[in-house]
Structure formats: structure tokens, C-alpha cells
Known about the structure:
mainly alpha; 11 helices
Amino acid sequence: MTTPHDALIAALQAAPGDADRLMRAACAELRERPAAVSAPDVEALRAGLARIADSGLDVVLQRLIDDAPDGQATQGIATLLRPPELAWDEAQEIDWAARHWEACRAAGQLDEALAADFGEYWRRLEWSALRQHLVLLGQRHAEERRLLAYIVKTASRYVALAPLKRAMEARFPEFFELGFSLR
Length: 183
């Protein structure tokens, strides 16, 4: 799985005021040298889902696998926008994603359907990030709480992920009862 370079994460943590400049530069680099795209690791996804529920999430697993080829254009930006070590306000994430989408469109790096619809681009980005977060959750990443918050955020937004949301509500009700923050 592609992860943001350690130096970028360290720079973002050390100088949060430079986040916009650093992220724009990282997005430009991503457009120049797109991240290597890989097929989803089904067993790693299954392990992440198993951390949420013992059963009942096979339909979600299948949706995530089926969606993966469509999400290849968003894997790299998803990694940049939603690393397990950091979180930004959603408005900032959308701003960076929209700028990246516009630049990719202008450069002809997106297929026609994706270039025509930022909403679909955002959905694919979120699902790409969800796949990454589930894999990391299955590996027992140190930032488990932030990963869970990201998973809740995405699962709560899409009807196709309703079984995942219900499983999250049952296993981690604190994310729904009190609200949550990714920070």
C-alpha cells in the first residue's frame, strides 16, 4: 500500500501553518509521478473488517473489491488527504481534492466520466481511503482511533456502506453517541 512519505508527514506535523503549501506541492508531485496502483489485498481488507464485526460484512467487502479498479485514479490523493497520523477539516480536504481533480482533468489524467463529475471523484477518493484505513486497522496501526473515525465518517455517508455503519454503531457506539473529531 502506498503511504505518504515520512518526511511529508513530519513536515506537516512540525509546521501545520505550511500545510496548504506542502499539500499543494505533494499533489503536484503526485500528478507528475502518479503512485503505483495496486489491487486491493482482499485478506487485509477482510482482517480490517473483522476488527469491526465477526460476520455480516461480506457484502461491504465485495463492494470495496468491485469498486477498487474505479478508485485507482484516487488512491494516491486519498493517501495524501487521509493519512492515519493527521486529519484536516473536511472543507480543507475538499479544497485540496477539487484543486487536484481540476489539475488532473486539465492534464487529461482522468477518464471522461470521472473528469465530468467531482462528486464521483470524491466518492472514489473516500472509498480508496476506506480501503486503506481498513487494511491499516487489520494491521493494528497505532492510530486506531483516528482510523475508526475515518471509517465511521465514510460509512455514514454512503448507503452502500450501511452494513458497515451498523456494525460500527454496534461495536463503537461512542463514535455515534457523542460525535467525534478526527483530531
